[in-house]
Amino acid sequence: MKTKLFSIMAASAACALLLASCSEKEDPNKGGDEPDPEPPVAEDVYVSLLPVGTLETFELAHTQNGVSGEVSFSVKARLSGESAEDVTVTLKAECDGISSDKIQLSSQQLTVSAGRKESTGVTVSVSDWSELASNQNAAEYTLTVSIAEASDDIDENASSVSVTINKAAYIESSFPDFSGDFLTLSTANDIVAGGYTENRTAADWTFEFWATNGGTIENTTGNTLCGDGTADLAIDNDLINFIVDFNEVKTLGGLYFQHWGSSFCPTKIRLSVSEDGDTWVPMGEIGTSSRNYIKFGEEVVTRYMKYEMLEATTRVDIMYMFIYEK
Question: CA distances (Å), 178 to each of 105, 311, 318, 324, in order?
Answer without folding.
Answer: 26, 21, 25, 18
